[in-house]
Amino acid sequence: MSEQSSNGQAIEVAAADSELYQPSPEAVANAVAPNYLQLRGEALADIEAYWDARAREMIDWFEPYEKVLDDSGAPFYKWFVGGKTNIAYNALDRHVNSWRRHKLALIFEGEEGDKQNYSYYQLWQEVNKFANVLKGKGVGKGDTVTIYMGRTPELMIAMLAVTKIGAVHSVVYGGFSEQALASRIDDAQSRVLITSDGAWLRGKTVNLKDISDEAVKRSSIVDTVIVYQRTMQDVQMTPGRDHWWHEEMALPIASPICEPEPMDAEDPLFILYTSGTTGRPKGVLHTCGGYQVYTATTLKYVFDLKEDDLWWCAADPGWITGHSYIVYAPLILGSTGFMYEGAPDYPHPNRYWKLVEDYGITILYTAPTAIRGLMRFGDAWAEQHDLSSLRLLGSVGEPINPEAWRWYHRVIGRENCPIMDTWWQTETGGFMITPTPVVALKPGSATLPFTGIEADVVREDGSTCEPNEDGYLVVKRPWPGMARTVWGDPDRYVEQYWSEFAQQGWYFTGDSARRDDDGYFWIIGRMDDVIKVSGYRLGTAEIESALVSHPDVAEAACVGIPHELRGNVIHAFCILNDGVSGSSDLVDALKLHVRHEVGPIAVPSELSIVDGLPKTRSGKIMRRLLKAQVQGLPIGDVSTLAD
Ligand code: WTA
């Protein structure tokens, strides 16, 4: 059964309450935090005491903090005030100085089957060497470095090297194109760009260096490009500006010793651009102290990470999921992570399941879109593999429909693996609403807020919704992993997240949700102009500004339309300039234009040429009407429509 949510998204109605998956007694007995439900109450009773204890438990501090939380400048909260630390130190150095020195930190398999392993010691050496290369290029504390690479260990090495020397990385996902990359480089003002010649995807190469060259042409600030050689394809190297990674790493400057830069807890750690309500990318800033504490705590409790686990987060390091749960938290916890370069169905739809079997993966964390994509090939592809090493599964990025949940549970988890459906955002740094292995599960529900998190579903006036009533999803108290600002634009930070419920001082997530009679949260979807396509977060405004940058387009509007496999797809509407007539060639050209300007992930699946767009009297495009029209739904209240 399905119904329409407030933002028009089709969702499957809450699985029957009777469909409750209780944790097994063994899982509870062996859990990292068997008393998790009790801890939730304790943490909320005193969030400062709770996070103080986690900050001491999870990471090392060079100098202790004086205060856990400073809320005097709210909503610009500060955590662990005065503490000094370094995330790369906590991720690597301290393990190298322990019995974990030769433990595997990372196991990698390329799309073509090539394999690489790194012990903590080896990863630490590579990071130190590259950190020294960066220093040699003049990169220092507080400088921003843009990274645009495929999913290989070197991306991780680059990120850790940047943070080790106190610089600030801005990783741009490899699925974005030249204009998206250029505007992110400009906004972050990075002088240095780290890229690869190319990346492997479905047996073909993505020309990352060519795209980088175009981006650098459009933004005047880059003077140094470091190029990791992955695909060996032909690329243009600009003398003086471009340097090969392997050549730099062979120079005497690339010494394997590099001391970590002591960072203040509130110094910038990284910027990650994400989509919001305007065309300009929004650089979400995370800082050095709270982010570490929050990501490590959440990973340890939710995925119950133990010393002998093999953890596979199948996201891309270019998105927050990869930042937090491929790169930083697993290393901080001293675990062994697995990374795979390519597509889930390459060369066959059993690639993921074969990897689980070949390596003995114990925990798999992926997205509903990947699960649905693999589910459609049938059970046999999974059944041919021994998946008995798995003990926990995870889901992230969009609501998981109960049907996909049940398939994941039955066919992949053999009804033995609880599914951690984690709701969170780029802005939250880590999991916010999520089960742990001791929480009873309902397919499609992200269950309960994490320890120390006070979330609620409220009406426009701030009053709490009744059970099963849709409302705004808000977070009522600060947490260490929260974003600190929008890079270079603090007003936008306040406006975007803290203005909807300014009076109450609550964080507005941009999502709608409801809670059932048991207090379980059911996420419905975005209430703003953000669209989740295959789990990727895109802004309508970014795609619309790409369309209007085409000489033939006068005006454009985009909406997300629910799609069985991809969650949503984009439908674009364009008004053409006077004298231009629409044709299927033009539609193709416009799609290609979006591919160049934003990236392949943003290409509309449908593009309609129209004479007009429905607008309010104040001139705002009423996307709700466009959406209803495409889906053949009633258009509802049109009293604000101009004509
Ligand atoms: C959506 C990804 C339902 C949500 C970590 C949120 C989810 C947006 C879930 C953030 C989930 C993420 N269930 N919806 N488990 N996880 N979302 O910044 O709409 O790429 O606001 O962060 O993804 O996307 P972002």
Description:
This protein has about 650 residues and is α/β, with parallel strands linked by helices. It has 19 helices and 32 strands. The protein has an 8-stranded mixed beta sheet with strand order 14-13-10-8-9-16-17-25, with helices on both faces. A hairpin with a 2-residue loop joins strand 11 (about 200) and strand 12 (about 205). It is globular. Residues about 1-15 have low confidence and may be disordered.
What are the salient characteristics of this protein?
disordered N terminus, seven-stranded mixed sheet, alpha/beta, 30% helix, binds 5'-O-[(S)-ethoxy(hydroxy)phosphoryl]adenosine, eight-stranded mixed sheet, 19 helices, 643 residues, 23% strand
Please render the helix and strand layout as text.
Layout: E1 2-4, E2 10-12, H1 25-30, H2 36-45, H3 47-58, E3 67-70, E4 78-81, E5 84-85, H4 87-96, E6 104-109, E7 115-119, H5 120-136, E8 144-148, H6 153-164, E9 168-171, H7 178-188, E10 192-196, E11 199-201, E12 204-206, H8 208-218, E13 224-228, E14 242-244, H9 245-249, E15 263-264, E16 268-274, E17 282-287, H10 290-302, E18 310-313, H11 320-332, E19 336-340, H12 351-359, E20 363-366, H13 368-375, H14 380-383, E21 392-395, H15 402-412, E22 419-421, E23 455-458, E24 471-475, E25 485-486, H16 490-498, E26 507-515, E27 521-526, E28 530-533, E29 536-539, H17 540-548, E30 553-563, E31 567-576, H18 584-597, E32 606-609, H19 623-631
Parallel strand pairs: 6-19, 8-9, 8-10, 9-16, 10-13, 13-14, 18-19, 18-20, 20-21, 21-22, 31-32
Antiparallel strand pairs: 1-2, 3-4, 5-15, 6-7, 11-12, 16-17, 17-25, 23-24, 24-26, 26-27, 28-29, 30-31
Helix pairs in contact: 2-3, 3-10, 4-5, 4-11, 5-6, 7-8, 10-11, 13-15
Bound molecules: 5'-O-[(S)-ethoxy(hydroxy)phosphoryl]adenosine.
